[in-house]
Design brief:
46% of the residues are buried. With 257 residues, this protein is α/β, with parallel strands linked by helices. The protein has one domain (2-256): 4-Layer Sandwich (Metallo-beta-lactamase, Chain A). The protein has helices spanning 34-43, 57-60, 63-69, 152-163, 178-188, 193-207, 217-223, 232-237, 243-256, and strands spanning 2-8, 12-19, 24-28, 46-51, 74-78, 90-92, 97-100, 103-109, 118-122, 132-136, 139-140, 143-144, 170-173, 215-216. It has 9 helices and 14 strands. Strand 3 (24-28), helix 1 (34-43) and strand 4 (46-51) form a beta-alpha-beta unit. It starts with a strand and ends with a helix. The chain binds zinc ion and fe (iii) ion. Zinc ion is lined by residues 54, 56, 113, 137.
Length: 257
C-alpha cells in the first residue's frame, strides 16, 4: 500500500492509499474532490473507498463529488456520525475492521474533538515494519484537536488508546499545525530537549515548505504535551497532580493562546 499525501484547503492533508497491483485506491478525509480526482487520474487508479474520521466539512467536503465520479466507492465513517457524513454507507465502531486490498484497518473510537470521531490504524504486515495511523483531528504533531463535542476525560481516554500503539507507528494527522503546536508546547515545557530539537527541525522544514506529517508516535510521546497528562513536568506546569485536570488546563490554555 502506497500512501500519498495531498495538501488541500489552507492546511489540510488528504491521504490517498494506493494499491499498485490492482490499480485500486482509497482516500482518507477528502476535504475537497479536485486534488483527489487529479491524483487518481495521474496514477490511473480507481477509487473504491472513502474513509472519513469525522463529519467536519474540511474532512468530508469532497465525498459527494468523488461519489459522482466513482459511484461504487464505499463511504465509511463512525457509527455515531449517522446523518452527518455525506454519502455514508458503513457505520463503524471500536474494533471494526476495514479490508482494503491486502491491508486491513482497525477502527479505534476516539471521541473528544467530536462525539463520533474514529481513527484508522493499519498494523504492519511485516514484523518490525511500522504501522500507519490516520487520526483525523484527534492527534496532531505536538498537539490535539479542540474539545468541540467532548470532555477532557473522553479525550484522555481516546489519546491513551492512540498512545498505546507501537512506538514506530507513523502518525498521519489531518492538518499541518505542527509549528504553531510546538511554539505552544515550548511555552509550557521549555526545558524539554527533545521538544527543542524537534522545534528546530520543524522550523527548518517549514521554511523549505516541507510537510511535517507523518510524525512518529515515539517522537510524539516525548514532545507532545497533550500525550503527557501523567508526566510530572506537564503536571507541575499545570499546577496539579491530577492527570485529567492537567490535560484540561493544558487544553484550556491552548484554546486561549
Ligand atoms: Zn475537525
Ligand atoms: Fe479538521
Amino acid at each position: 500500500m502506497q500512501i500519498h499525501r495531498l495538501p488541500a484547503l489552507s492546511d489540510n492533508y488528504i491521504f490517498l492509499l494506493y494499491f499498485p497491483n490492482t490499480g485500486e485506491a482509497a482516500v482518507v478525509d477528502p476535504a475537497e474532490a479536485e486534488p483527489v480526482l487529479n491524483y487518481l487520474a495521474t496514477l490511473g487508479a480507481r477509487l473504491i473507498s472513502i474513509l472519513n474520521t469525522h463529519h467536519h466539512r474540511d474532512h468530508v467536503g469532497g465525498n459527494l463529488a468523488l461519489l459522482q465520479r466513482f459511484p461504487d466507492a464505499i463511504v465509511y465513517g463512525g457509527a455515531r456520525d449517522e446523518g452527518r457524513i455525506p454519502g455514508q454507507q458503513k457505520f463503524l465502531s471500536e474494533g471494526d475492521r476495514v479490508v482494503l486490498g491486502d491491508r486491513e484497518a482497525q477502527v479505534i473510537f476516539v471521541p473528544g474533538h467530536t462525539q463520533a470521531h474514529i481513527a484508522y490504524y493499519f498494523p504492519p504486515t511485516i514484523p518490525n515494519d511500522a504501522g500507519d495511523l490516520f487520526c483525523g483531528d484527534t492527534l496532531f504533531s505536538g498537539g490535539c484537536g479542540r474539545l468541540l463535542e467532548g470532555t477532557p476525560t473522553q479525550m484522555v481516554q481516546s489519546l491513551n488508546k492512540l498512545r498505546s500503539l507501537p512506538d514506530s507507528t507513523n502518525v498521519w494527522c489531518a492538518h499541518e499545525y505542527t509549528l504553531k503546536n510546538l511554539q505552544f508546547a515550548l511555552s509550557v515545557d521549555s526545558d524539554n530537549l527533545a521538544l527543542q530539537s524537534r522545534y528546530q527541525q520543524v522550523l527548518n522544514q517549514r521554511q523549505l515548505r516541507q510537510a511535517t506529517v507523518p510524525s512518529r508516535l515515539e517522537i510524539e510521546k516525548q514532545i507532545n504535551p497533550f500525550l503527557r497528562w501523567d508526566d510530572p513536568a506537564i503536571q507541575s506546569a499545570m499546577n496539579t497532580q491530577d492527570p485529567i485536570q492537567a490535560f484540561a488546563r493544558l487544553r484550556g490554555k491552548k484554546d486561549m493562546w
